Amino acid sequence: MVELKIVENMDSKEWDRRLVAMPFHSVFQLHPWGEFKRSLGWKPVYIFDETNQDTPRFMAQMLLKQYPFHITLGWILGGPTFRNDSPEEIVDFFSQLRGLLQKSFSRFIVRTNIHLPEKASLSYFLSKELFAPVVELNSPFSSLIAISNDEKKDFLNSMDSKHRYYVKKSLKEEIHWRFESASVLLDDFYKVYEQMNDLKGRREEACSYDYIKNLCSAFGETHLKFLVGYWNNMPVTGCLVLLSKNKAYYFLAATNAAGRKLSSAYAMVYHLYHFLQKSGIQFLDLGGMAPANPDAKGVDHFKRGFGGTTLQYLGEWEMASSNWIRIAFNLGLKLKEKFL
């Protein structure tokens, strides 16, 4: 058995160095994500085993927030990260985590979102320590595109026929593309993002300008890039990607009315693939898919059509100091989902 340690302060470079050496690490476990969430009222803490600090078996950046009645909410997005997928070691981690939480907090609930590929055996062992949530915050499905290091290999051949048609159609348009840092393209991207949300009537659900600006500040130019397409010198489409070692995460994207007429979102993914290829990135994660949600059918089709592999992660699990806290938490999420 290895012993876990929780610390409130961690050197950012040291944490990220250890994290990216782990298989299946998530961009949401990087130190900048914790600092970004700190600006939104969360407190990041860092959990790891002390067996070998250079090659830990477990790592988790957990975000904490205090609620009434002395209840502490913990959120581990994209983690914990494990050096291997041994069921015994994973169960050991959560068993020890429960013990640490019981010593630190009188009442708590912790939700985790594990980015390890789904295996029936792992889910079985996890169910011995954790509960599957009644209300999920994130889908366990994602579309992962492998980026070839052979520039002669045509990305178009990986797509389905419909996507290939729309990419070729959009490539004929005179759209100028810029792949640069946040400080240069933030305003242009956000302009398109606002126009898209106005078009869809969901301005109230959208991320604010300050939200995206704070995200840019936390990740910096090394870990965050924008790709924006311009038509007639006006931005019509764009996306924000987060970078971690050899992987890019498609975090946010937008296309306005003019861009939709040009099918520019299809060309944007095509150009993003090639910009990332030149940067040495090996994987592009197009993010969450929700096969069980009819409202997500269009988005899922768009992501799936580029020829990536559909992954199912272990996803969300939770533990709590008592059943009534866990039930109340899920009930609150259900009510929020129904009325908002």
Number of domains: 2
| Cα distance spanning the termini | 45 Å
Largest sheet: 13 strands, mixed
> Under the CATH scheme, which architecture of the largest domain would be assigned?
3-Layer(aba) Sandwich
What do we call the CATH topology of the largest domain?
Answer: Aminopeptidase
Number of strands: 13
Pattern of helices and strands = EHHEEEEHEHEHEHHEEEHHEHEH
The assigned structural class equals alpha+beta
Shape: globular
Strand content: 25-35%
Number of helices: 11
Rounded mean pLDDT score: 91
**pLDDT < 50 runs, ≥5 residues:** none
Report the C-alpha radius of gyration, rounded: 21 Å
CATH class of the largest domain: Alpha Beta
Name of the CATH homologous superfamily of the largest domain:
Gcn5-related N-acetyltransferase (GNAT)
Question: Care to describe what's here?
Answer:
The protein is α+β, with helices and mostly antiparallel strands and 340 residues long. It folds into 2 domains: 4-140 and 313-339, Gcn5-related N-acetyltransferase (GNAT) (Aminopeptidase), CATH 3.40.630.30; 148-281, 3-Layer(aba) Sandwich (Aminopeptidase). 39% of the residues lie in helices and 29% in strands. Strands 1, 2, 3, 4, 5, 6, 7, 8, 9, 10, 11, 12 and 13 form a 13-stranded mixed beta sheet that branches. It is globular, with a radius of gyration of 21 Å. The termini are far apart. The model has no long low-confidence stretch (mean pLDDT 91).
